[in-house]
Specification:
The protein is mostly helical. The chain has 15 helices and four strands. It has a two-stranded antiparallel sheet. Strands 3-4 form a two-stranded antiparallel ribbon. Helix 4 runs antiparallel to helix 6.
Length: 302
């Protein structure tokens, strides 16, 4: 950001550096992500006595492993701990509990209700194994990714939001809405406040963060330019009002995701999200006070 490097170039360089550091510092992870066998068995065709016996050939080079791992991690779904391994551990632990329960009851066949009654006692005996399984499940969830494939849903959503905003602009709907709102925006402070209110309103009604950025951005872009205000001011306002308030709306995609991830209802954590609801208020306050208001070069020379 200090060097003002182009965003695409910065993201590309960051991705490459991440891969380079992984190759240097995490060879074990590289091997796991690559998914290549340590040794590959090939059938030898020779005049040896046992000509059909497989012989071990050298494992793929680390250079090849690194290339495969980086391509997999950037493009495909990656799982350091496969699902079948976790499922196998769960099945084994359940089988061991069942065997222990039958042993305690003289190898008698147990109903599921009887097994549940013994489960509390058995859990104390299997504490270490339960902890190991819980750690394995947690690690399996953390150590996986979907690469570019996992971002497709977000990309499609952004494209749809841009198309939606473009259609509204081409049909004159955005201009009609903007003209109604601008009747309240007679100064820079009131214009920023109107933009903030529009972002919050779209978050409440459209239930998506990207729409709360794209639609108000297209609505007020020309107005900011006509009043000599730099695009950076509009961008900052959209970020401070559209992005950060989306997690405060229970039916918004961001609010629903946070609630499901944290296991806490949106309205429960909302009072403690000080940054999220103070940020738009500070943006309006700075605009009214004329602090850090970026203007176009032509406007500065007037």
């Amino acid at each position: 950001m200090i060097a003002k490097v182009d965003a695409v170039a910065a993201l590309f360089i960051g991705t490459i550096l991440g891969g380079v550091f992984a190759i240097i510092l995490q060879p074990t992870v590289i091997t796991d992500v690559a998914g290549l066998p340590e040794l590959s068995a090939q059938t030898a065709s020779s005049t040896a006595e046992d000509s059909d016996a497989p012989i071990a050939t050298p494992a793929p080079s680390y250079l090849k492993r690194s290339y495969v791992a980086l391509i997999n991690s950037m493009a495909n779904e990656v799982k350091i701990i496969p699902d079948w391994e976790v499922s196998l551990m769960q099945s084994n632990l359940q089988e061991q509990k069942l065997t222990a329960a039958r042993t305690q009851t003289g190898n008698a066949e147990l109903s599921w209700a009887q097994f549940e009654e013994l489960n509390v006692v058995l859990t104390e005996s299997f504490t270490d194994r339960e902890s190991e399984l819980e750690g394995k499940v947690a690690a399996a969830g953390l150590m996986k990714g979907k690469g570019m494939n996992g971002m497709l849903a977000t990309v499609w959503l952004i494209i749809c939001a841009m198309c939606f905003g473009g259609v509204m602009e081409a049909c004159g709907l955005l201009q009609r809405i903007t003209n109604s709102l601008l009747s309240f925006a007679n100064s820079t402070g009131s214009l920023v406040a109107t933009t903030v209110g529009s972002c919050v309103f779209v978050n409440l009604t459209a239930s998506d963060q990207y729409l709360s950025i794209v639609v108000p951005g297209r609505m007020f872009r020309e107005t900011f330019e006509e009043r000599g205000l730099a695009p950076q001011l509009l961008s900052r306002t959209l970020e401070d009002a559209g992005t950060v308030t989306s997690v405060l709306v229970p039916w918004n995609t961001c609010g629903a995701f946070q609630a499901s991830t944290l296991g806490i209802a949106t309205l429960v954590y909302l009072p403690f999200c000080f940054f999220n609801w103070i940020s738009p208020l500070m943006t309006i306050l700075f605009a009214v006070a004329g602090i850090k208001i970026a203007r176009l070069p032509a406007a500065k020379n007037r």
